[in-house]
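Reposting from the mailing list since nobody answered there.

I have sequence plus structure tokens for a pair of proteins and want to know whether others read the tokens the same way I do. The first protein:
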Amino acid sequence: DLCSRVACTHRLQLVAFYSYMRRYLKPSQEQAPRLLALFAQACHELVPPDELVPIIRHVADAFVSDRNASEAMALGINALREVCGRCPAVLDEPEMLGLVRDLAAYTKHRDKSVVVAARGWINIVREHHPQLLQKKDRGRDKARSKATPAAVIAPQRVTQSRFDQAWRLDR
């Protein structure tokens, strides 16, 4: 707990800490939620992404599979979402393309907690690297979604009579 907080607060790169945490990140672990929270807390922008990718892959393989309970799946997806939110450079790694799309596919899962976690994952990936998602998961373009119906309506024509009225008012 202390190492995680110190690494987060002071932006330290404790490479051995991440490999040490990997040993204990298992769904059968009694303290799995706490350990995943500590792992996510220790991640920040300065951590080398190539150090995080094996651990992210381990968490995805261990927690996010259909043979695990839905709580463990949601826990794993939420932990990965938090790690990628804290260290978005991880998404630039080539190994992450398949993982991003696999986790996004859980939006069709039968359990609601897994669906909500997968939507959160899609939102964080959409925010940092939307090109990794399939087209249907990218959402609308920001320019198109911000266009309001009032902005779409053509502006009124300025006729000579309106111009004259405005000119008289200014005098």
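The second protein, same order (residues first, tokens after):
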Amino acid sequence: HGSTLRARTREGSGNLSPLAARTRILETLTDVLQGKTDGPVLLAATPGLGKTHIALESAVTHLCDSYRQGDKRRIVIACPTRELAREAYERSQAWHLPPTLERALLEGRNRGNCEFPSQIASIGKRGWSPGQAWCSGCPYREGCDYYGRLRRGLKAALIFTSYEQAIATLE
């Protein structure tokens, strides 16, 4: 379930001007944040229209407003890759959030936060869950940097991650 907003400016039928496409993206995000849509919405638009900027600005504004009203919801910004998630997270640093609104980057396991990255990568390539196939019996689980970051990150108001990590973590 869900819907896809297609806001393209290239030649062809149903094209929008860049301004009209940005306006449509903003209107759609406003509807999503106000709970007026069913299921997730995928923004598919020409590069350079400002999807990330508009989404971040809308999310931050919505979170600040909802926290002032006592509504402590979370927003997950899921990107196609870890690199794009990191870029969006870094862009979000430009917005100064109130101290109660934390942001987090969920990156998944890597050499910097896991004692067994090659085993984890091998398990993932086979389509298995590293958390179930390896981590549950890991002798380093109690002090695991990955799980520590994950526990703290899941409490944040604004979470940045890849599609793959979002599916694995937030199901």
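Reply #1 (J.P.):
I read it the same way you do. Confidence is low (pLDDT under 50) at residues 7-13.
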